[in-house]
């Protein structure tokens, strides 16, 4: 009888876009693979690919204790029905409530802390509650993967997790066959008369440095010392339920002022990255930035902040530049620095980024670690 591996995440979209390579690898290894997530447009796509799917309901934007208890019960019932041998879990609520449900069902779990979000950036009541729940639930986890050493050490120092169950992963990994630099990277991008395009891809929340990006754009547009045409693009969903959400009205104002161009939601992000000259992410903290990995795989130079989860992707001055977090002026200085580089230097930076991803962040590295951990848990 096939051993069963369940994957629990807060959206089916997340599974389809970031974990599909892992699902295929698990199936190729002879496992029965079950996706457990809220229903969205990508749930049916997973089923069309032959993966078993079970729906759960998660309120990703709230901390309603009644809804969270219902989630715990929902997960327990699904686990009892599916009877997985090992459960892989991602994002905060599956990591917490999925672990508790798995403990009740007697199933080993592998958790993934892909970023700290507002849980550690803030110190309000909900953040304190989340840390308390992490401390309680992670005590039942057989393995906890982190995407950078800083987050791992922070959890250990705060006694949220036992050091012996922790390990590191290079993010979710990049499918290097899927993310290939376009031939000549869209020739128009490097034409002398084409505008220099800075692209920021993120959810529209302050923690991603959206305010600093807009302020830096204004500084550069007001700078008369350069004659180059330049555009600043924002790509990503609005996130109104988040306490640090950027409002649609604010973005509309920036567009009216001519500061930024807002692209909204786009399914094929790589196609937009290929139209940019440089990808910018002034985030306050990341687990390991997926956007920066994709940009590097597509051979784009980067400007990002010198913070955990961002600095790991950039060798300063080699494949991009690191700037001071929460500092629009310093961000603008480094963006102007990128703009001033000759075309051959931009191309060289992009090639260095691609090489770094090939050597350190290949999806195959991540999948091999998962397979090893799963095999060990099943054997034991």
From TrEMBL:
Catalytic activity, EC: 2.4.1.-
MF term (GO), any: glycosyltransferase activity
Pfam families for this protein: Glyco_trans_1_4, Glyco_trans_4_2
SUPFAM superfamilies given in the database record: UDP-Glycosyltransferase/glycogen phosphorylase
TM ranges: none
Domain Glycosyltransferase subfamily 4-like N-terminal per the UniProt entry, residue ranges: 5-148
Keywords: Glycosyltransferase, Transferase
EC top class, as a word: transferase
Protein name, per record: Lipid carrier: UDP-N-acetylgalactosaminyltransferase / Alpha-1,3-N-acetylgalactosamine transferase PglA Putative glycosyltransferase
């Amino acid at each position: 009888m096939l051993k069963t591996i369940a994957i629990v995440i807060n959206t089916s979209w997340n599974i389809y876009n970031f974990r599909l390579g892992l699902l295929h690898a698990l199936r190729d290894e002879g496992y029965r693979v079950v996706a457990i997530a809220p229903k969205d447009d990508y749930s049916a796509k997973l089923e069309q690919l032959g993966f078993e799917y079970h729906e759960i309901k998660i309120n990703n934007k709230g901390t309603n204790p009644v809804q969270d208890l219902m989630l715990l019960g929902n997960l327990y019932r699904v686990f009892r029905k599916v009877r997985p041998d090992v459960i892989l879990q991602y994002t905060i609520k599956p990591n917490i409530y999925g672990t508790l449900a798995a403990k009740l069902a007697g199933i080993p779990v592998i958790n993934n802390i892909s970023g700290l979000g507002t849980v550690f950036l803030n110190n309000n009541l909900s953040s304190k509650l989340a840390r308390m729940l992490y401390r309680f639930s992670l005590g039942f986890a057989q393995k906890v993967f982190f995407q950078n050493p800083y987050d791992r050490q922070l959890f250990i120092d705060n006694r949220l997790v036992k050091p012996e169950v922790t390990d590191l992963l290079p993010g979710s990994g990049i499918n290097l066959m899927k993310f290939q630099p376009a031939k000549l990277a869209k020739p128009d991008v490097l034409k002398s008369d084409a505008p220099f395009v800075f692209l920021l891809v993120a959810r529209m929340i302050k923690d991603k440095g959206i305010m600093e990006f807009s302020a830096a754009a204004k500084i550069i547009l007001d700078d008369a010392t350069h004659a180059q045409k330049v555009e600043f693009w924002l790509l990503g969903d609005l996130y109104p339920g988040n306490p640090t959400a950027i409002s649609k009205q604010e973005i509309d104002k920036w567009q009216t002022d001519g500061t930024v161009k807002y692209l909204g939601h786009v399914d094929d992000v790589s196609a937009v990255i290929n139209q940019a000259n440089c990808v910018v992410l002034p985030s306050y903290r990341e687990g390991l930035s997926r956007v920066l990995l994709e940009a590097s795989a597509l051979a784009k130079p980067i400007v990002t902040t010198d913070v955990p989860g961002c600095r790991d992707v950039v060798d300063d001055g080699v494949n991009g530049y690191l700037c001071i977090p929460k500092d629009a002026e310093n961000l603008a200085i480094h963006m102007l620095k990128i703009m001033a580089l000759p075309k051959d230097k931009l191309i060289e930076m992009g090639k260095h980024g691609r090489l770094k991803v090939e050597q350190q962040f290949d999806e195959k590295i991540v999948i091999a670690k998962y397979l090893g951990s799963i095999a060990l848990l099943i054997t034991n």
